Amino acid sequence: KVKGIVTDNKGAAQYHVNGGYESKIEIIKVSDLVVGKRGKTLSTIPPTQVWEKVDPPPDSDKYYSFTYFACELNEMENGIAPTDSRNRPDQRLMEDGKWDAANELKLALEEAQRKRRGECTPQYKPVWFSREKDPDTKTEMYRHNGEYWQCKEKKDWKRCPQIFTV
């Protein structure tokens, strides 16, 4: 069971959270604090459901108990970058049950990647991220540069390295 109160920076209740993993979770906005004969009570507006349990797919026990969402994560999609892991040929072989061929191809892809990495001069620069210092923690981080979605819209992947070729 989930039950809680979300407060603002002054400690005033803003939302109630209720529910459970077996059914649903709702948030309830607190609209006012009412003082009456029985003490203080919170006046609320009707709840908003923010999550609902989805039953697993039939035969999910045969598929690692994956949810529908997890089962769809590796589905192919038109217009994806050539570096998207859904384009991994070894992964496709594995999904087809061709374990030995998948393993051989994986090893060949890794060897080709090591060779390409050794040929990189100057050091490889990420295509979709820029390296910078986090202003709060002062640690190095990578920030998404926003260009991926523009390239996806145009189907312009010429900046991508060909990482799945042997």
Textual characterization of the structure:
The protein folds into two domains: 2-52, no CATH class; 78-154, no CATH class. The chain has four helices and seven strands, in the order βββββαααββα. Helix 2 runs antiparallel to helix 3 (99-119). It has helices at 68-72, 89-95, 99-119, 147-154, and strands at 2-7, 13-19, 24-36, 39-44, 48-52, 129-133, 140-144. It has 166 residues and is an alpha+beta fold. The model has no long low-confidence stretch (mean pLDDT 89). The strands form two sheets. Strands 1, 2, 3, 4 and 5 form a five-stranded antiparallel sheet that branches. The radius of gyration is 25 Å and the shape is elongated. The longest helix is centred in the middle third of the chain and has 21 residues, at 99-119. The N and C termini lie far apart (51 Å). Pfam families: Oxysterol_BP. Belongs to the OSBP family. Keywords: Phosphoprotein.
What labels describe this entry?
alpha+beta, sterol binding, Oxysterol-bd, two-stranded antiparallel sheet, Oxysterol-binding protein 2, phosphoprotein, 166 residues, 4 helices, 2 domains
List the helices and strands and how they pair.
Elements: E1 2-7, E2 13-19, E3 24-36, E4 39-44, E5 48-52, H1 68-72, H2 89-95, H3 99-119, E6 129-133, E7 140-144, H4 147-154
Antiparallel strand pairs: 1-2, 2-3, 3-4, 3-5, 6-7
Beta-strand level of the residues, as a percent range? 25-35%
Give the N-to-C terminal Cα separation. Answer: 51 Å
- What is the CA-atom radius of gyration, in angstroms? 25 Å
Q: Count the helices. How many?
A: 4
Q: Which structural class should the secondary elements be placed in? A: alpha+beta
**The biggest beta sheet, please?**
5 strands, antiparallel
Unreliably modeled segments = none
Give the overall shape, derived from the CA principal axes. Answer: elongated
What is the oligomeric state here? single chain
**What's the SSE pattern?**
EEEEEHHHEEH
Number of strands: 7
**What percent of the residues sit in helical stretches (DSSP H or I)?**
10-25%
Arithmetic mean of pLDDT = 89
Number of domains: 2
